[in-house]
């Protein structure tokens, strides 16, 4: 990072990122380098406008012409600052000796970015402080001195020393310490510890959330093999467990891959592929032609199920309540035996396309908090709240009960979440089954996952984890309707 080649005005040959300070001032005020400016704008948009960093940052980089190593710097700075926000806030507040909500929002975001550079990046302290002070001066001129003093205090200690000071090891509240050390809210630390049965292991899961995830592709069975897909890509390797996965290591935009444009493959986490394949692989007596994906948008699992269905002469009805997401499903499954409908999945028995007892296999990939995919959404951990749980768990149970009505006796339902929160996983399954008049049995999901998959627990449900499996934390329960 430090040896990033500089372009544009003020670039001096042979220097590193810190030399951006040498840029000549514009209009009498120091110019802010475009990469840091883009990072600031992205972080500010997330906090001010509820924007999503993965949407807003690429647009900002495009608009400002920031590319190559500068774009990588801006991305690391943006995503890192957003992931670490809670911990950076604790440190900045201690250094400022004032609560974060008593600091102007633009100054607050600039200080977060400055503190992230000081504590997490290989940026010289002088450059981190000076560029942030310049940024603050351009935003709130009167706050430059304050920002300078705060950042100098932040930079007096490294991250470990700050953690030691704010949450000493052996303190009476290990959850609070883990939350600060791994930059997650305490309720999420508790949720991971409950699901794993151990705070020590939860810390590994929290750490895994702070690393950018690899891009996985799904080679659609019957259309392209993973080997064919991998050889068409620079530096791609086979997935660890799923027979369809290719791991992209060469970077670049997956949307430009010809096999993806031609509908032979799609971007999909390996864990998502495994749980969809578990539904397709579950043993079934009798007909096996009518499959249902009750929560299909944007169409990742429908794409894999559609390809598997095509190989077996089956077809998939893909249901999505949001109109624009239903359109994405239709687009993602073009050429496959998938019939997309824009409907509420709870309308089984009311919608003519969703007859009771009408399906042999049903997937409920339920709307959830997404706590299992925090690696992908840097701001999500701070945006999500425990109060999000009750409406989601209600919806999950209603959708699962609709799936019980939709599946024929003897047919199989897969209930899937990309959250390991037990209220959304095992509790939702138990509650939906308890409140339904339809008899269902839990089926052990483990035989329908690759035998090489380690640490899948004692069944019958399976919870995947980034730190164990390198996948999102997907949960799957298989249920068979008995009558
Ligand atoms: C976890 S996502 C599904 C992801 C999808 N299966 C995939 O692999 O790409 C949940 C989806 O359920 C949709 N949804 C929410 N409520 C629904 C309902 N009542 N009926 C049908 N779909 C619903 C959401 O709009 C969202 O697209």
From TrEMBL:
Pfam families according to UniProt: Methyltr_RsmB-F, NusB
Binding-site positions, S-adenosyl-L-methionine: 295-301, 320, 347, 365
Positions of the SAM-dependent MTase RsmB/NOP-type domain: 191-482
Superkingdom of source: Bacteria
Keywords: Methyltransferase, RNA-binding, S-adenosyl-L-methionine, Transferase
InterPro entries registered for this protein in UniProt: MeTrfase_RsmB-F_NOP2_cat, MeTrfase_RsmB-F_NOP2_dom, NusB-like_sf, NusB_RsmB_TIM44, RCMT, RsmB/NOL1/NOP2-like_CS, SAM-dependent_MTases_sf
Annotated catalytic residues: 418 (nucleophile)
Region feature (Disordered): 1-33
Low complexity bias (residue ranges): 1-10, 24-33
PANTHER family, per the entry: NOP2 YEAST -RELATED NOL1/NOP2/FMU SUN DOMAIN-CONTAINING, RIBOSOMAL RNA SMALL SUBUNIT METHYLTRANSFERASE B-RELATED
The family this protein is said to belong to: Belongs to the class I-like SAM-binding methyltransferase superfamily. RsmB/NOP family.
Official protein name in the record: Transcription antitermination factor NusB
């Amino acid at each position: 990072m430090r040896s990033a080649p500089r372009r544009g005005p003020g670039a001096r040959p042979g220097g590193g990122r810190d030399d951006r300070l040498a840029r000549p001032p514009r209009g009498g005020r120091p110019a802010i380098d475009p990469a840091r400016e883009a990072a600031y704008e992205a972080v500010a948009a997330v906090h001010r406008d509820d924007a999503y960093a993965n949407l807003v940052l690429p647009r900002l980089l495009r608009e400002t012409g920031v590319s190559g190593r500068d774009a990588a710097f801006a991305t690391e700075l943006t995503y890192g600052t957003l992931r670490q926000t809670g911990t950076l806030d604790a440190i900045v507040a201690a250094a400022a000796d004032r609560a974060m909500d008593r600091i102007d929002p633009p100054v607050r975001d600039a200080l977060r970015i400055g503190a992230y550079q000081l504590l997490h990046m290989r940026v010289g302290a002088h450059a981190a402080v000076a560029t942030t002070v310049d940024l603050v001066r351009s935003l709130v001129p009167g706050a430059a001195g304050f920002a300078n003093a705060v950042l100098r205090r932040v930079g007096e200690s490294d991250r470990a020393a700050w953690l030691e000071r704010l949450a000493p090891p052996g303190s009476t509240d290990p959850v609070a310490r883990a939350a600060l050390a791994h930059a997650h809210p305490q309720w999420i630390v508790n949720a991971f510890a409950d699901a794993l049965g151990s705070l020590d292991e939860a810390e590994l899961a929290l750490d895994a959330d702070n690393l950018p995830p690899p891009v996985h592709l799904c080679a659609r069975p019957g259309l392209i093999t993973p080997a064919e897909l991998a050889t068409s890509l620079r530096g791609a390797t086979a997935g660890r467990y799923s027979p369809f996965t290719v791991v992209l290591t060469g970077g670049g935009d997956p949307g430009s891959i010809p096999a993806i444009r031609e509908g032979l493959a799609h971007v999909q986490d390996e864990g998502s592929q495994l749980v969809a394949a578990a539904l397709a692989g579950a043993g079934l007596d009798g007909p096996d032609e009518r499959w249902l994906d009750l929560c299909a948008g944007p169409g990742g699992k429908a794409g894999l199920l559609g390809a598997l269905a095509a190989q077996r002469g089956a077809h998939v009805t893909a249901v999505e309540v949001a109109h624009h997401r239903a359109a994405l499903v239709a687009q993602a499954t073009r050429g496959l035996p998938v019939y997309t409908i824009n409907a509420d999945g709870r309308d089984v028995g009311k919608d003519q396309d969703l007859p009771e007892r009408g399906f042999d296999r049903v997937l409920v990939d339920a709307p959830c908090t997404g706590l299992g995919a925090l690696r992908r959404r840097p701001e999500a951990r701070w945006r999500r709240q425990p109060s999000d749980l009750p409406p989601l768990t209600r919806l999950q149970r209603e959708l699962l009960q609709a799936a019980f009505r939709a599946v024929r006796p003897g047919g199989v339902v897969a209930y899937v979440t990309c959250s390991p929160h037990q209220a959304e996983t095992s509790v939702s399954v138990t509650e939906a089954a308890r409140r339904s008049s339809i008899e269902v049995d839990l089926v052990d999901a483990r035989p329908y996952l690759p035998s090489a998959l380690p640490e899948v627990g004692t069944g019958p449900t399976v919870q995947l984890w980034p730190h164990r499996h390198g996948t999102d934390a997907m949960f799957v329960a298989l249920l068979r309707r008995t009558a």
